[in-house]
Specification:
Domain Carbohydrate kinase FGGY N-terminal: 3-241
Strand content: 15-25%
CATH class of the largest domain: Alpha Beta
Shape: globular
Keywords: ATP-binding, Kinase, Nucleotide-binding, Rhamnose metabolism, Transferase
Largest sheet: 7 strands, mixed
Number of domains: 2
Pfam family, one: FGGY_C
InterPro entries: ATPase_NBD, FGGY_C, FGGY_Carb_Kinase, FGGY_N, Rhamnulokinase
Structural class: alpha+beta
Distance between the termini: 53 Å
Radius of gyration: 22 Å
Bound molecules: beta-L-fructofuranose
Number of strands: 22
Domain Carbohydrate kinase FGGY C-terminal: 253-444
Strand order of the largest sheet: 18-19-17-16-20-21-22
Length: 489
């Protein structure tokens, strides 16, 4: 029996077929497509209609390959949303979370509500682009889209609605809005009231693994496919990625490595206390009412964006070429804090890296290899910092780090991560989110008994590369310097 996972990331999306045979999973990418946001005027939007078109192409390709998926599920990045009007039409184009319209908004909201109140009610880390701040920015701007909104749908909710005609909010993604109260188990009406946001547009929240309708017959006719059941999986891609971590212990540390690096551990209850708030950790909902106690790290976005800048300047390198240049550059020449706000938005990343270095009294990296080395070493050092915070906050000591996601194809980054944390890195699987998406569909259909069984099957099905730590003293010395210059002491 074949099933289908749509996994949409910030830079590309894919449709992946999954098969389960003799306790082994097989995955086959049947369609891959770019996800290019579109800037119109000063605003940056997702191209929702194109993404939906590509999803249909995936289904068509499956049919042409002779496959009829027994179910399908969608996961995407979090935080972003669309608003439907009374007639069920999408109002406006959903904003990209890297758009500037939320500038200053978090500070304004926190000055009114206090961080204690907001974190205490949601357990969600403060990120300037969280849904809450996008919505309050729209309200402050008198945005007519918000005034007309009848339904609030996160991106996968919206794509699923397009497929089925049914509107639900899925739990893993709902938590990332910073409007969901995990202690009350629902949208936080008091918080919405204080913000003046219409509670009525927030709908029923369903858990990962809930059947959420059938493919609309009009789409079936268009593509020549029968009606297919649609499952609400862990629709936040990080939720799906963590579901795919091939850990056998109940407690483990992970790093979901893609455009973002998400590092943390899985817990049974949200950790909402003073320390979690101070360290700015988050508690995002997961499969089986688990929570991801984690922190966002800027991740490979900085490298992707630096590459785009080089491409624009006519210096075109592939990612493997860039990594090779980094390997040949001198070690620890310059370091940045990847999470400095300088690096959040799109633009001239290489110049900003140099600016950061000048600001912190370092010699700015000159050649391409030096720049890429600075990015990758700094990421690995930040991983160590967050790894230690995760241990401190969860009161555990981890034997190593599970890394999943496309970023693990960068073997140098995996090795440097092991070097930085001084513990082994277990890297695999690469297609974490798609595999977690498939796993939850199989749990929903009863093919897999539980998330524990799913992780065992994943461990037996996909290779894991082990990176043992090396060069301890050099990394230790660099870590001390990194903390000082990033002000992380
Ligand atoms: C990763 C991710 C992160 C979220 C960021 C923005 O793809 O979903 O978990 O913080 O994108 O939505």
């Amino acid at each position: 029996m074949t099933i289908l996972a749509y996994d949409l990331g910030a830079s590309s999306g894919r449709a992946v077929l999954g098969r389960l045979k003799d306790n082994r999973m097989e995955v086959e990418e049947i369609h891959r497509f770019p996800n290019d946001p579109v800037k119109i005027g000063e605003r940056l939007h997702w191209d929702l209609l194109r993404l939906f078109h590509e999803m249909k192409q995936g289904l068509l390709k499956a049919r042409l390959a002779g496959e009829t998926p027994a179910s399908l599920g969608i996961d995407t990045w979090a935080v972003d949303f669309g608003l439907l009007g009374r007639t069920g039409e999408l109002l406006g184009n959903p904003y990209h979370y890297r758009d500037w319209h939320t500038e200053g908004e978090m500070e304004r909201v926190l000055a009114e509500l206090t961080p204690e109140y907001l974190f205490g009610r949601t357990g969600i880390q403060f990120l300037t682009f969280n849904t809450i701040f996008q919505l309050t920015a729209m309200k402050r701007a008198g945005n007519p889209v918000l005034e007309q909104a009848d339904k609030f749908l996160m991106i996968p909710d919206l794509l699923r609605y397009y497929l089925t005609g049914e509107a639900f909010n899925e739990f893993s993604n709902a938590t990332t809005t910073q409007l969901y109260n995990p202690l009350l188990g629902g949208w936080d009406a008091e918080l919405l009231g204080k913000l003046g946001l219409p509670a009525s547009m927030f709908g029923t929240v369903v858990d990962p693994g809930t059947p959420a309708g059938q493919l609309r017959s009009s789409i079936g006719t268009e593509l020549g496919v029968p009606s297919i059941p649609v499952v609400a999986v862990a629709e936040h891609d990080t939720g799906s990625a963590v579901a795919a971590v091939p850990a056998l212990d109940r407690s483990f540390a992970y790093l979901s490595c893609g455009t973002w690096s998400l590092m943390g551990t899985e817990v049974d209850k949200p950790v909402i206390n003073e320390l979690a708030q101070k360290l700015n950790f988050t508690n995002e909902g997961g499969v089986g009412k688990t929570y991801r106690l984690l922190k966002n790290i800027m991740g490979l976005w900085i490298l992707q964006e630096a590459k785009r800048e080089l491409d624009r300047a006519g210096q075109e390198y592939s990612f493997p070429q860039l990594v090779k240049l980094a390997e040949d550059a001198p070690p620890f020449a310059a370091l940045i804090d990847p999470d400095d706000v300088l690096f959040l938005h799109a633009g001239d990343m290489v110049s900003r890296i140099r600016q950061y270095c000048r600001r912190t009294g370092q010699q700015p990296p000159e050649g391409v290899g030096a720049v890429v080395r600075c990015i990758l070493e700094s990421l690995a050092l930040k991983y160590r910092y967050v790894f230690e915070l995760t241990e401190q906050l969860s009161g555990q000591s981890f034997g190593g780090l599970h890394m999943v996601g496309g970023g693990i194809q960068n073997a140098l980054l995996c090795q440097w991560s092991a070097n930085a944390i001084g513990k082994p890195v277990w890297a695999g699987p690469t297609e974490g989110s798609a595999i977690g998406n498939l796993a939850v569909q199989w749990i929903a259909s009863g093919e897999l008994a539980s998330i524990g069984e799913a992780r065992r099957v994943i461990r037996d099905s996909f290779p894991v590369t082990v990176y043992e730590p090396q060069d301890g003293p050099a990394w230790e010395e660099a870590y001390g310097r990194f903390r000082r210059l990033a002000g992380l002491e």
